[in-house]
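Feature request, filed as a ticket because there's no other form

It would be nice if the structure record came with a short human-readable summary line next to the tokens. Right now we just get the raw output. Example of a typical job, pasted below so the devs can see what we mean:
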Amino acid sequence: MSHYFQDDPNLASNYKMISFEVNGLTMNLLTDNGVFSKNRVDEGSLAFLKVILPLNLGNNILDLGCGYGTIGLTLAMAKKEARVTLADINARALNMCKKNAEALNLGQRVTILQSDIYEKIEGPYDSIVVNPPIRAGKSVTYRMYEEAKQYLIDGGSLFIVIRKAQGALSASQYIESIFGNVKLLDRHKGYHIYQAVKSNK
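Raw output as currently delivered:
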């Protein structure tokens, strides 16, 4: 069985256009079989975007585990001065992400990479945003948190969204053990949005 966090080239395609609105911005994105939340944007991403869109994320942002581009492309649309790198291991998701970036005329301001977690990531970034692939397991998601620190500028931030029922509290404790701090920015329908800042000390 294929999972959205794997790359399965044998899965038949079934393109679909979905729309959503967040903070007054309407987004239309193409999805396909074999990608996360192919029929509609997931509640976690929407809750995440509502919180982080108004924040100053700096001009160099990484969306790790970007899927078809829900978070990273929305940030690029809203933050005209920012350059956004979108990375995922799933080639099919990245293909959709590239098509969506082109349709939104974002090709000059986004970089789309196939990367197994931070494998192809260079950085450093002002902000790293993650809606972690929980079904991939802690061996994947905790590396996304732990290794983020080395790809952030001093004073840069890791932002994540995770459901309480899927281990939000233990994830926040782990992130705090890495960064020395973690802040709960918001809660919405069981989703927790956290920020951890890389100290410049």
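Something like this underneath would help us a lot:
Confidence is low (pLDDT under 50) at residues 1-6.
Strands lie at 16-22, 25-31, 60-64, 83-88, 110-114, 125-130, 152-163, 183-188, 191-197.
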